[in-house]
Design goal:
With 185 residues, this protein is of the alpha+beta class. The protein is built from 4 helices and 9 strands, in the order H-E-E-E-E-E-E-E-H-H-E-E-H. The longest helix has 16 residues. The chain starts with 25 loop residues before the first helix and ends with a helix.
Length: 185
Amino acid sequence: MAIYEILIEGEPELRQRAQKIRQADDELRRIAGDMWETMERAEGVGLAGPQVGVMRRIITVHVPAGMDDEDSPEYRYVLLNPEIVRGYGEQTGLEGCLSIPGWAGEVTRYDSVTVKALGLDNKPVRIKARGYLSRVFQHEIDHLDGVLFTDRMAEDAKLYRVDEDDIDEDAAMLSNAGATREELL
């Protein structure tokens, strides 16, 4: 397995729409494995093709158990051509991104979504997700369309500096001094 370099905000690939995948083949399965390894090494919960310069509609998602509550299960997905076909409710929560390291901001998203995609076996997949998993799917699918979480933030929302060594589920990881999107980007 190879580890990809994760592209950082400012790289043009992050603002481009990824190409649809006709079907999975051995090359794409290798790419998926490399993306998975890259995501795990970076301690991320999701990674999209454009974040590593792969301009194809592929995402990897690994949400550990206990992210919504202590009983929520672990989720692991590699999806091709994922799209949100339904969204319900609303949740506002803190988001960060491997392509915008050291920063987090509040983003409002659907609370639950239905995602349709292809699996690496080329079979259709339909997933109903809520809570944190829903947020991760929306975030990663946005990457496939050249959209970053900062684009989804409210106009007056603040970005907060995050101490990468102390990331946990609490908002206590945020510094007191926030920057507006315009000040950072």
